[in-house]
Amino acid sequence: ISGYSLVIQARDSGTPPLSSSVTVNVDISDVNDNSPVFTPANYTAVIQENKPVGTSILQLVVTDKDSFHNGPPFTFTILTGNEEEEFTLDPHGILRSAVIFRHMVATEYVLCVQAKDSGKPQQVSHTYVQVRVIEESIHKPTAIPLEIFIVTMEDDFPGGVIGKIHATDQDVYDVLTYTLKSEQKSLFKVNNHDGKIIALGGLDNGKYVLNVSVSDGRFQVPIDVVVHVEQLLQEMLQNTVTIRFENVSPEDFVGLHMHGFRRTLRNAVLSQKQDSLHIISIQPVAGSNQLDMLFAVQMHNGGFYKPAYLIQKLTNARRHLENVIRISAILEKNCSGLDCQEQHCEQSLSIDSHSLMTYSTARISFVCPRFYRNVRCMC
User: Where in this chain does the record put each Cadherin domain (predicted)?
Assistant: First the structure.
């Protein structure tokens, strides 16, 4: 408890008795009676040989239960194990290399490190740091090529995470970093540490080939990353058909089935090879394990196939399509639950271009807008 606030009253013996009160604040001054605490109590670290001088090896973590003026900043000192001055320890507790280590010279160092707090008199704690010197990287990183498909409304792409590079290295202690060539940074970014690819807003329609590389500190390997951006036309939304799949997640559909189903679907519904199949969006059906895929087909002259024509084609080819993935339903209208009797059921489709869904796998990523259906009975 750092302090108390007391209200003290004095009352006299007169008739009637009179009184007054005063507040007394009692502050408890901290005595430096807690030593710094290392977390964990002792450390193990690894450095590869031939790393440059100044390479960060370890960050010491120290806390103190005393008040702030009796705790940090801490003073760090290497007491033993650094007689040849192979290491330096900065005021922030970061242990760095002061030489270029050779695995053949020494494979292990044990340092005794001291931390002093700022109190008077100072309290002291010690920890031991075991540093292993391992052979430098001998394996190049390997990365899986990534293809990204982005579907967005005309000139209305808000940006965001569109995929992630998957890279591995057989050298256990290698730390991988990712870089993007500077000339492409006005449109895309890559997180240096985890390989996530971020697209900035306002991407134009077309194909982008990104110059991305992954490095383990010694080897640098290029990665094939291709981004396809397709801008939707308003007319597409008026000529869409939905295929509902059974027992499939969006990621499994994208990673395992999308390419094959797209090819089978093209063969089933396209009248001419020059026609274009557009997958507009995929999204899970709420409260189920089903998945909706929204698509439209554009003729080579610019118009679109009518939904009724597409549904007839799909119905005829359904058995063939289900050789790829199980289909639950083919929807043009979604009026289940509405009793329109002799009235007409009208469906409208809306796209939320600022609510993007990213379904990412190691090899393929699909980014699309969320869509909503509204149905009502019309005379």
Answer: 4-38, 39-143, 154-245
